[in-house]
Design brief:
The structure is a single chain. The protein is 27% helix and 17% strand. The chain has 243 residues and is of the alpha/beta class. Strands 5-4-1-6 form a four-stranded parallel β-sheet, with helices on both faces. The chain has a four-stranded antiparallel β-sheet with strand order 7-10-8-9. The protein is globular and about 50 Å long.
Length: 243
């Protein structure tokens, strides 16, 4: 799986003033990132890449302490991939060398981290761009036997057996599958919304629409198995950030 380390997390400010949203503490010693990590463990997924960028120092530190050689992942691995903006001269060979260093002594190297006010073309521009920038790495020798790649958000709070989702994806024959939930008017504009046809294929998608654009994404959610009464309360189909 690939877990995305999140962006600025402005809606949780000031909790995210000095940390990425996945590093926000929950339940005492835990962080939001531990939710998808726990889901991976309980789903039998033991090969995990984590892409970090924005205010990532606290997140990297937590991951190093929690998942560095603790045996939870058996013959799998947890590897953090960092978006380097401050080193434009870096090439793939140098990044591979740094990865080898991390595997021996994880996170003991000083990594570049994006902070408020910084911009640059080399920063991840979104979910797809983050995966695109490290696409070459997922073709690594030890990834040759991986049939499917699960892409997750590192800052969502939920419980899910990912293998059920993966099995449905395989049976559908789709190139990409998106996990979704019905959502009400109050929260709809906080999500990416979609319209689907009777076969479950996505025919329209809008990222966090508002106003008339939001109203245009309303659908009959009985297609998801809701009763007519429930569908009237939740007329939108929202992406869970699980692909």
């Amino acid at each position: 799986s690939i877990i995305l380390g999140g962006g600025a997390g402005t809606r949780l400010f000031p909790l995210t003033k000095r940390r990425a949203k996945p590093a926000v503490p929950i339940g005492g010693a835990y962080r939001l990132i531990d939710v998808p990590m726990s889901n991976c463990i309980n789903s039998g997924i033991n090969k995990v890449y984590i892409l970090t960028q924005y205010n990532s120092a606290s997140l990297n530190r937590h991951l190093a302490r929690a998942y560095n050689s603790n045996g939870v992942f058996g013959d799998g691995f947890v590897e953090v991939l960092i978006c380097f903006l401050l080193y434009p001269f870096m090439n793939q060979n140098l990044v591979t060398h740094l990865r080898q260093l991390f595997e021996i002594n994880i996170f003991q190297a000083l990594a570049a981290t994006q902070t408020p006010g910084e911009t640059g073309k080399r920063w991840f521009q979104g979910t797809a761009d983050a995966v695109r920038q490290f696409h070459w790495l997922f073709e690594d020798a030890r990834s040759k036997e991986i049939e499917d790649v699960l892409i997750l958000s590192g800052d969502h709070l939920y419980r899910m057996d990912y293998m059920d989702f993966v099995q449905d994806h395989r049976q559908s024959g789709a190139d990409i599958s998106i996990s979704c939930i019905p959502i009400d008017d109050r929260r709809a504009s906080d999500f990416g919304l979609m319209k689907i046809d009777e076969k479950g294929r996505v025919i329209s998608f809008s990222e966090k629409p508002k106003g008339d654009d939001l109203k245009a994404m309303a659908v009959d959610t009985t297609i998801l198995g809701l009763s007519k009464e429930e569908a009237e309360k939740k007329p939108y189909i929202a992406s869970m950030g699980v692909y």
